[in-house]
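Weekly structure sync, notes
Attendees: PL (lead), two postdocs, one rotation student
Agenda item 3: pending single-chain targets
PL asked that the sequence for the first pending target be pasted directly into the notes so everyone works from the same version. It is reproduced below exactly as submitted, 164 residues in total.
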Amino acid sequence: MTYIGSLSHSSGMRHPAIRPALFLIALLADAGGAAASQLPGPMTARVERVIDGDTIRVRVQVWIDQELAVNVRLRGVDAPELRARCDDERSRAEAARDFVIALVGEQITLHSIGRDKFFGRVVADVTVADGRDLGEALLAAGHARPYDGGRRESWCGERAKASP
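Predicted structure, written out during the meeting:
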């Protein structure tokens, strides 16, 4: 990969991810006050690793010879966290992660790519090679709950036992 962009004019240091990252940020930024907060996709992404049941690390080509590694949060689902508050949540998180690993393979497709509340991460709809929506598959298998971006409910305790 060609080094593109410099970290600063005075340092002379170059980093291969600066310009692609700025490119993606610019695409997701407001353009002259107009809300350009989503890329419609589709964008094909190579899976680097499954972080947990609702987050995947991918590498996506954003320009000719320009790739960006980014964490993708699945839109509309909340899966249990591996850094769990209880043993039940931890075992559910491992099951959700393993389910995602089994479905995603090496390549996924991103749609409706938008900003996430955490810098360096995007939120998107994700389809796997056979065309299934990954979020819907997680919900149908009972490995996740619907999520609208608000406060997450606990996966521990009595209320969690009634959840999928």
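Discussion points:
- The domain at 34-161 is CATH 2.40.50.90 (OB fold (Dihydrolipoamide Acetyltransferase, E2P)).
- The beta strands are 38-39, 43-52, 55-63, 66-74, 77-78, 107-115, 121-127, 145-146.
Action: rotation student to compare against the earlier draft before next sync.
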